[in-house]
């Protein structure tokens, strides 16, 4: 019987999910999957603003390659955890059955936005200024509201909320203590 637990790290874009998943994976010497590695042109609804206004059903966000990779990793894994970057926690039907615990990285939206802008500056596309300007127009128009709604959906159904304003080391230590404590309770 496979006792591997799948731990989803959730939060808004820019909350630090990728950094946290990689740091936790290193701490526990466990495998990880990153949501963005499985995003393609069919992942998100074509008109995100319309999607948001019609209820923001995150189950319409499709990542079949991520689900396949997770299923295969669970079957083959012998480590205690698999860490997965899943911005939507358990809210997407296609992954909810695989996730044991959801940890929400809670961070003010202005800090997330600052991190996203920094990311665009540090890793520019073909037209960095247009990319940032275009993103900010969408952010003001609808993306900010989408991020808030998605985080609130996760917040209602997560297992742990972590203040993302702390250092990576502090957050990894806090999550590590919770996971060790939970594992100890399960075996006593």
From TrEMBL:
InterPro entries: AAA+_ATPase, P-loop_NTPase. Coiled coil: none annotated. It comes from the Bacteria. Residues 3-127 form the AAA+ ATPase domain. SUPFAM superfamilies: P-loop containing nucleoside triphosphate hydrolases. This is AAA family ATPase. It comes from Thalassomonas viridans.
């Amino acid at each position: 019987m496979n006792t591997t637990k799948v731990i989803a790290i959730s939060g808004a874009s820019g909350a630090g999910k990728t950094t946290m998943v990689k740091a936790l994976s290193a701490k526990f010497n466990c495998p990880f999957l990153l949501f963005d590695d499985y995003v393609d042109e069919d992942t998100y609804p074509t008109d995100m603003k319309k999607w948001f206004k019609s209820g923001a059903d995150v189950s319409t966000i499709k990542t079949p390659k991520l689900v396949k990779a997770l299923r295969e990793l669970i079957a083959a894994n012998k480590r205690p955890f698999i860490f997965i970057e899943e911005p939507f926690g358990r809210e997407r039907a296609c992954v909810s059955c695989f996730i044991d615990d959801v940890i929400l990285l809670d961070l003010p939206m202005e800090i997330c936005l600052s991190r996203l802008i920094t990311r665009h500056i540090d890793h520019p596309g073909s037209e960095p200024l247009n990319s940032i300007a275009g993103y900010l127009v969408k952010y003001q128009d609808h993306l900010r509201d989408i991020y808030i709604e998605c985080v609130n959906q996760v917040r209602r159904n997560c297992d742990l909320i972590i203040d993302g304003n702390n250092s990576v080391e502090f957050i990894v230590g806090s999550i590590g203590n919770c996971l060790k404590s939970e594992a100890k309770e399960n075996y006593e």
